From TrEMBL:
The gene is GBSSI. Keywords: Glycosyltransferase, Transferase. This is NDP-glucose--starch glucosyltransferase. It comes from Elymus repens (Quackgrass). SUPFAM superfamilies: UDP-Glycosyltransferase/glycogen phosphorylase. The keyword Glycosyltransferase applies. Transmembrane segments: none annotated. Its EC number is 2.4.1.242. It is an enzyme of class 2 (transferase). One of its GO terms (molecular function) is alpha-1,4-glucan glucosyltransferase (NDP-glucose donor) activity. Residues 58-120 form the Glycosyl transferase family domain. It catalyses: an NDP-alpha-D-glucose + [(1->4)-alpha-D-glucosyl](n) = [(1->4)-alpha-D-glucosyl](n+1) + a ribonucleoside 5'-diphosphate + H(+).
């Protein structure tokens, strides 16, 4: 924030509370971790997320996630077009989409899930615990 202010840029800077989102003590992730245990724990948390959203559980498959408002400035139409292209070019990939907004964009995400049911999940409702996946891995015992 200070560096941005020195350049003359103004606005709201995104950030996070590093103590609230500390993976060592986070009560919402499936497996807590620190620097020494991060690699194995993150893989387990990824598997928990896959299971939670109903995707095939496989730690070897890359998982891409989008969490945000479905509005023009966020580019959901570009994202859906990229999903189509990605699915044609990459055999093993999974995508989780979470957000609400304009109905036309919600329909686009739902359509991507319908077209690629084993690879794409579109959660087009507000889900606070699942939304936290953008900052930390899978949640424990939080229904969709």
């Amino acid at each position: 924030d200070n560096i941005m202010r020195l350049t003359g840029i103004t606005g709201i800077v995104n950030g996070m509370d590093v103590s609230e989102w500390d993976p060592v003590k986070d009560k919402y992730i499936a497996v807590n971790y620190d620097a020494a245990t991060a690699v194995e724990a993150k893989a387990l948390n990824k598997e928990a997320l896959q299971a939670e959203v109903g995707l095939p559980v496989d730690r070897k498959v890359p998982l891409v996630a989008f969490i945000g408002r479905l509005e023009e400035q966020k580019g959901p139409d570009v994202m859906v077009a990229a999903i189509e292209e990605l699915m044609e070019e990459v055999e093993d990939v999974q995508i989780v989409l979470l957000g609400t907004g304009k109905k036309k964009f919600e329909r686009m995400l739902t359509s991507a899930e319908e077209k690629f049911p084993d690879k794409v999940r579109a959660v087009v409702k507000f889900n606070g615990p699942l939304a936290d996946h953008d900052r930390r891995p899978a949640r424990r015992h939080q229904p969709l």
